[in-house]
C-alpha cells in the first residue's frame, strides 16, 4: 500500500493529510469524545500536535507498514476525520484498523464508510485479517464495526491503557478477507423504533441514567431473594451494568430493558433476554418490578412484549425462565403469558455459604404465546 493513493468509495475520500487540515485535526482530536476513546492523543490537543501528526506522525505510520488517511468530503475535500492501519503482524497477514471523526461529521455514516473503504483496500493489497478494537463503553464505535462487516470475537483482557497508566479490557471485532462487507447480522437486533409498547407499558433499552433506580430495585430484599446467588449488587456494579447495557446488546450477551408506565413516563421495573443457546434458538427471560407497580399486570405485559419481539425479529424459537420454586407471583406472570412448567432442577443454582438452590423451569414456544 502506497501513501500517494487516494481512495474514493462509499461516499468518502481517503487521502494524505496536508497542512490545510490543521484546524480540523485539532477540532477532531481535542473533542472530549475523541479524548475519551483515543487514549494516545495529547491532552490538551493543540495546533502544534496537529502539525506534528501531519508532518511526522502520519508519514511514520506508512513507514512502519501501516497507513494514515484523512477522511475528506469528496465535494469540498474538507477533513471529516481520520482512518488508519497500525500494528501489522505480517506472519498472520493481520493489521488493526482505527478511526476518529470530527464532531460536526458524526451521525452521517462517515466512520462506517471510511472503515469499509480502507478495509476493502487492505484486503485487495493482501491483508487476510483486520482487527478493530473498541472500548467497552464506546457503543458508537461498536455499531460502526458491525455496519462495516466486523464480527465480535471477544474481550482482550487488559489490552488497553488509560492516560493514568491503568489497564482495561478492549473488545475485539474482526473481519476476514472473505467475509461479507456488512452489516453483520446480530444475535440481538435493535427494538423496532427503539421500544416496545402495548399502550400501557413501554419497554426500552437500559441506559446509563437508570443506574440509581436499577440499584434501588435490585437491592430490595424480595428481589435479591429470588436471584441466584441471593446477593445484592454493589452500586458500582449496577452503574457499570447500565453503562455497558448497549455494548452487551451489540455483542449479543444480553438485552437489558427498562419497563416504563406509559401514562406517567415513570420507570416501573426491568426485564431482559439473553441467548442461552444460539444453535438451537433458545433464549432466557427475567424481570422485576418496583413495589408500587406490582399487582397491575405490568410484568405480564412486559414479558409478553419481550416474547413477541424475541420470536419475531430476534429469531428465537424457544424461551425459558428459571424461577425459585417459592416465587409464586413470578410463576403466575409466566403462566399468564403462556409459559408452561417443564420441571424442577434440584440444586442447580448457587445459594449462600455453599448451599444450592432448586430451579423451577418454565418454557414458551411461539404457539404458546397468549
UniProtKB/TrEMBL annotation:
Origin superkingdom: Bacteria
Acyltransferase listed as a keyword: yes
InterPro entries given in the database record: Acyl_CoA_acyltransferase, GNAT_dom, Ribosomal_N-acetyltransferase
Pfam families named in the record: Acetyltransf_3
Enzyme Commission number(s): 2.3.-.-
Signal sequence extent: none
Residue ranges constituting the N-acetyltransferase domain according to the UniProt record: 12-177, 201-367
Molecular function terms, GO-annotated: acyltransferase activity
Keywords of this entry: Acyltransferase, Transferase
Residues annotated as transmembrane: none
The protein's name in its UniProt record: GNAT family N-acetyltransferase
Organism from which the protein derives: Micromonospora parva
